[in-house]
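thought: fold this chain, then report.
action: predict
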Amino acid sequence: MPRYVGDPAQAFSPPDHRQILRYAQRAERAGFDSVWVPDHIFFESPPGVFEPYPEAWTLMTAIAATTQRVQVGSLVLAAGFRHPALMAKMAGALQELSEGRLLLGIGAGNQPVEHAAFGLGFDGRVGRFAEYVSIVHGLLAGERLTLQGRYYTLTDASLLMPNPPVPIWIAAGGERMLGLAARYGSGWNGGGGVSGDGRQFREKLAALRQACEKIGRNPDEIEISCSANVLVLPSTAEVDAQVAHMAAAIPGATERDVRDRYVIGTPDEVAARLRQALDWGATHLICSLGGRPFTLWSDAVLDLFAPALRAASPKGRGGRTKKRDLAGGARSLVRCGCVFGSGVSRRRARRRARRRARAPGCDRDGARPRRGRALTLPWCSSPPWRWWRRWSPASWRQHWPRSSRR
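observation:
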C-alpha cells in the first residue's frame, strides 16, 4: 500500500494510516486481489537519509476488518521485531478474523541501522531466522515445541488452540534462505523480477526449485511472486517526458537505466512487460505504482493501471495463471499483486468455491443462481415472499450436496 503519494523526488511526508486504509479499500473496489504492507520503523536509503514507515500489523488488521474480499499480505515482516510465539499467535488470530485472507510474509530483515537504533538483534540474522520460521511454522501447525536454540528457547510451548491455516511467504535470495523457503514456505517473495532481462529473478527461482527437489518437495506447491515499480501513462509522448524527468532526478542514471529499472509505458506496453514475469515463472506480481517501493505517483496512474492488468491477463492459458470465472471463486487476472496487489492462489480459490457450493442457494460452482434455477429458502438472500415460487424437490436434490443434508 502507498505510504506516500506523489513524486518521490520531493520530500516524503509522514505516513497517514487513514489514507493508506482508504487506498486499500479502493484497491478492493478496483478489482485487485491482494494488498501488501511493508514492515519498517524507518528505512535508510540512500545512506544517511531516513524515511518513516507505517506500522504494519495495525494497518493489516484495519484493512482486514474493513474489506471483504481482498487478501492482505506483509512484504515482509522482519523477524527481529516480534518474538516468533507472538507472531504465530497474532497471525492465527488475524487469519480467523479475516476469514482466511492473510498472507504472512516474513524475512530476516535488511536494515542494520534500524535494528541497531532500537537494540534489536541483527547478528547471525539467517541463523536467527531459521529458528524463527521453524517456531512460527510449528506453532501454527498446532505442535508442542521444545527448543534450546542459539537465539530462542522454548519449553513445551504450544498455542493451546487450533488456528486456521496460515500461508507463510518467505523473502529469500541466498542459498540458506532459499532452503528455508523450500522447507517452510507456501510462497516465495522473490523481489524485483521485471527489470532488465530478469536474469537475477530467473536464477533465484531456479535455485529455489533445486532446493525443493533436494528435500523431495514439489516446487509447484510454492507460489512465486516478483515485484515491480510501475508507471502507466496515457501516451508515448508523456512516457518519454516522464522517463527524461526521472533520469534527470536520479544521479548518474540514463533514460535506458530508467526504462530497465521501472515498468513504465502506455497500458499496452506495461501489460507486455508484466507478461514477461509470468513467462519466467511468477504467479503473483506485486506492483508499486510509483517511483519508489510502496509509493503511488498519482491517482491517474492507478486509474490507468487496472486496464493494463486486464490486458496482461493470460486468457485461456493453462496452469496456475489461467483466468477463472469470478463466480467459480477465483479472482484471477494475471494473479497480479499490488502494493496495490493481487494474487489469489489456486488452492484457496478452490476452497472458496467448495464453501460457497455447500451454501443454500448456490450452484455447484458457488454462483448465486438466476431466478427459478436453484434452491432459495426463506433464510437466504431473496425476499421471503418469493422463496416458495422457486423451490422444488428436484432443485433441493440438485443444489444441496448430500454431505450437507444432515
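thought: worth noting. The chain is about 40% helix and 15% strand.
final: C-alpha cells above.
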